Amino acid sequence: ARLSLTDPRDLTQAISRCRWLLDLDADPVAVDDRLRTDPLLAPLVEAGPGRRVPRTVDGAEFAVRAVLGQQVSTAAARTHAARLVTAHGVEVDDPEGGLTHLFPTPEALAGLDPETLALPRTRRTTLTTLVAALADGTLHLGTGTDWERARTELSALPGFGPWTVEAIAMRALGDPDAFLPTDLGIRRAAERLGLPATPAALTARAADWRPWRAYAVQYLWTVDDHPINHLPA
Question: What is the CA 223 to chain-centroid distance, rounded?
């Protein structure tokens, strides 16, 4: 990675964030040793050992993006996020030329008019309730957050089902055992591999993958042409 810092005193924090973002403090040997005990996962592990879980350095941003990504394609979710950033994010001057705006803070989004969002009404409610809870401090999604408490608080919000809650637990909170049995890509992969394809049955089978089910998710996503397998253009 190459860092461009305006203040060299930020270097330590920047490196720490990079390590978190790329999951560099994981123990891939322990993870792979556990997952390859399943004969149906073992070929995936052998084909590409050492997979990490891509994370985010801003839990609030990821939670907003997760809501925008509910029941739509990855491309559509990106479009919704870009519109939100353009309308409510803060413009920045990036010497490298790749960044135009900062993602809007929960406080900035808490005051938006939901009628301006090109989303179904129920998802508008989900988004506005989420940003209100983040803005007033009711909900915390930073590193060090208690995983189970966050799951309970997220599940109490309207429109937050298992997929959204577990995606946030995996990517924003860093829970190595977060699992997405309802994810379409996971269900397709399970069916192709001969694993149980229903969420309940797959969850039961995945008990043997604990406490590394988030890494099993990464391997299962390699079975299909999932966007996570491609670097951004």
Answer: 19
- Cα distance between residue 175 and residue 142, in whole Å: 12
Asked if 228 contacts 171 with a C-beta cutoff of 8 angstroms, the reply is no
Q: Which residues pair with 90 in a beta bridge?
A: 102
Alpha-carbon gap, residue 176 to 163, rounded angstroms: 15
Domain boundaries, the chain: 24-53+178-229, 59-171
pLDDT in tens, 75-120: 888 888 898 899 889 998 887 777 889 999 999 998 888 888 878 8
pLDDT digits (tens, 9 = 90+) for 157-207: 999 999 999 999 999 999 999 999 999 899 999 999 999 989 999 999 999
- CA–CA separation, 177 vs 210, rounded Å? 6
The two structure tokens encoding residue 137: 């401090």
- Domain 24-53+178-229 in CATH 3.20.20.190: no
CATH 1.10.340.30 fits 59-171, yes or no: yes
The whole-model pTM stands at 0.90
Neighbours of 216 (CB within 10 A): 25
Of 183, 133, 132, 128, nearest to 153 by C-alpha is 133
3-state secondary structure 134-191: HHCCCCCCCCCCCHHHHHHHHHCCCCCCHHHHHHHHHHCCCCCCCCCCCCHHHHHHHH
CA atoms within 13 A on the CB side of 229: 12
